[in-house]
User: Fold these one by one.
Assistant:
Number 1:
Amino acid sequence: MRLKLYLGERRTPFTVPSHYNYFLQSLIYHHLDAHLAERLHNEGFGEGGKRFRFFVFSRLMGDFQREGDHLRFPRGAILYIASPNSQFLESLMLHLLTQGALPIGETRVPLHKVLVEPQPEYRPEVIFKALSPITLRQTLRQPGEKYTYYYSPIEPDFSERIIANLREKVRIWFGRDIPPGDAYCVPYAVDLQKNFHMINFKGTWVKGWSGLYRFHAPPEYFEMALEAGIGERNSGGFGCVEVYKGAK
């Protein structure tokens, strides 16, 4: 399930920092019950070092103009927030409905309305549209140094890592391992330059790609992709997807 937030007003522009992911993440945590926010932020779900927060959010969807290091939205914007965790969404919605405006950076943006969107019907193969960049990384080491390598969508490891990541999310959330079979997530319409994004998240530059992706997987993977995101850093606003309505 996901929430659809209508932000701003058509005739009243608002401005936010160009790199606003952290501000949106903070907004979400601050509009949850305190004990739930603390548990998600500090513990998450899982065991050992591999833990998930099981929520994801989109970019601000709407026309905008760049003004230095800020973005100006002249006619409002839409923000999607998704999660398989009903307690998370219920708490978030109850807190949001008491607010007339939401803080994004130094700007208080009017909250026009909040809608609940149902889960799309499962299909074995769909086209996903990335509503926020998909990121996958690995820390590599060379003599005397280590660095972060980001996988582009055209690399064979991209699909394998997407599915492996979803398998782990499915295992933790549903409490059992569900083999992916011949699952895949491959580029359908992705321009490596036009769909490339470099986002500053809490001082770290994160690389990711938007675009359209062909996705084939079991129902649990489909559900998890839509409600918890694909790839990594989902709770930081990466890997939010929707079923592409232009696909036949």
Number 2:
Amino acid sequence: MRKKWEVALRREGFTASESSVICSEHFKQDEFDRTGQIDSEMVLFPPSSASRFTSKDYVLPASPTALKARLNEALARVESLERERKNAMAREKRAKTTVRSLLGDLREKNLINEELKERLDFYSDLQIDFKAKQGHEYSKDHREFALTLHLHGPKAYKYLRETKNVPLPHPHTLQRWLCSVDGKPGLNKMMLDMLERRCQEDQATYGCVALMLDAMAIRK
């Protein structure tokens, strides 16, 4: 049986050993024995045709000229794939932008004032993926940006979402998020945590803050 495989492979000077193997991709499914009547999980039937092992895809040409031509074909294929990869990366980069560019556009169209722009500048480096589908999972920073913009600039929010097709959450989603905010009287832990995180991220801007407390009557 081993001799039959050596002949079928047609590899000059090749002698099969106990550890010699052949890739299963070269065989059809009906050439495997999966009956379970033998110890091995899959055993190949005796080779019925050697044509697949002499295909130009698996056998190197004997002529140096033909070998060089095959190499040039492979190199051209590699260059083509590399160009495709770079083009895909460029498309991916164009599909993403940052909040900074969005704020500049909104300011030029007078959809936000300078005060709101300065407030949102904290999120300037936040990336917006235009390829993301509506309703995808939003990060904590994306949520804060969306809530702040919608609260202080609803027209700007609508412009970005409906005209510029920025994948911002639907206003109903924002309302659902706000329903989960703890609005009970007293110090709001979520706001204190946010201030602490801002201070850690930007010590120069948020290193010194004033905490103002006020009291109000609440009717049941």
Number 3:
Amino acid sequence: MSKPQVNRIHADDIEPYRARGGRLRMVLHPGSVGSRSGYMGTVQLQPGEYVVEHFHPYSEEFLFVVNGDLVLEVEGENWALGAGDGIYVPIGKRHRLRNVGATESLIVYHVGPLAPDPSLAHVDTEVLGEPAERTDPAAGTARILFTVKVAEEKREDFLAAYEKVRFNVAAALGHIRDQICQSPDDPEKWLIVSEWKSTEDFFAWEKSDEHKEVVRPMRECYSDPEFRNFTVVAETTAARS
């Protein structure tokens, strides 16, 4: 995890995440400021837009309405919200936020404590629009394999830099999960496995200015990079009794 530091970040400098509805920006988080208790951001919703229903299995959420007229649905109960209202959502409660007004709404949110891993920070219980029909849910998703060599004296800096990258990429459009692995036979050999909804989503993030900036410290720690890109054809999971 990055070292905590005082840092001012403007929300407009963050690329919005749109896959869950509206424009979500994670502004202050472990990857950007080294926070250890949670993360904060903004949500902008146009009239009629909504953030899909989801819950946080490890975290509470605090919402503050800067402007707009909204309804927060929590476990089937509706809460009307307007400018100046704050509302608290306990751990594990399913909720959906909708703009029911005639103008754009702006909400500030804080989520904490942190989940054990960014991929566990929230669980979506619906998708935005109609989900694509697939015989195999994993078919068509992308796996990005990236191997590097990291000298022992660079290991700590490499892992600290990767920590910042993984919190940043967790908010990228189409990202599913990341893993970092170390070879038991050659401790200087590392593998990063990144799973995406599509290769297009990955390359869109890779070409972004945000990606170039956040991975720069990590690139200074490794050598001999090798990149492989695969598309999943089928997936087998363990049988459930």
Number 4:
Amino acid sequence: MQKAYKLLATQKNLSHNQAKALIDKGLVLVNGKKLTLARTELPQNTHFSIMEIPKPQVLFMNDELLAIDKPAFIESYDLQAYYQDDGWVLLHRLDKETSGVILLTKEASAFSKKAKEAFKRREVYKEYRAVVSGIIPESLSINKPISTIKKGFARSRIDKHGLEALTHIKPLGVVGKKTLLEVVIATGRTHQIRVHLSSINHPIVGDSVYGGISARRLLLHAHKIRLLQYEIISPLPKEFIL
């Protein structure tokens, strides 16, 4: 038996730091399942596979707005680094394993100020797709307050003393014991969709933090956003096709 990151480094000709970084990013699979702890003890003959991250794609760009199709496993602020030399900054963010449309604007521009105000006034329409465990037969709204602890790794929970959080869900398809959902959020709390779906006993597939079954990634995708006069849509990744 040996620590996972050391085995990975040996097999893939990597440094220990490179191997740890790949595991920490969620990109290493063992027998088709994501490896989450770099110091896990594993047999010498363990076979590893490393997932490749596709490059971010531009969905729309003009002088005031840049819309990017963010792949899973890229941090939002790392994504900003691709474009900040041209003056683009994030308007909002997505969790690392959440894919889909993310918006950037020119810092301190007139449009940026209007866009930020629209987010503050909850005038931005945000629609997601999620694959969850279990069968959800009909549309429903989840109105449960959420509190978040941000010490190191952020984690949220349902809390009657927390902040208002409202999520609307609609089933789009069912295969076996999984449901593909349309999810629209009226508020934007940390991990809101993940916590709300877990609270009704239908966690998102791949969400190890909130009780989801194991998968290569968190099956949550930012599908559509409407901001002021713009509507941007990100195509559904193949892993969401049930």
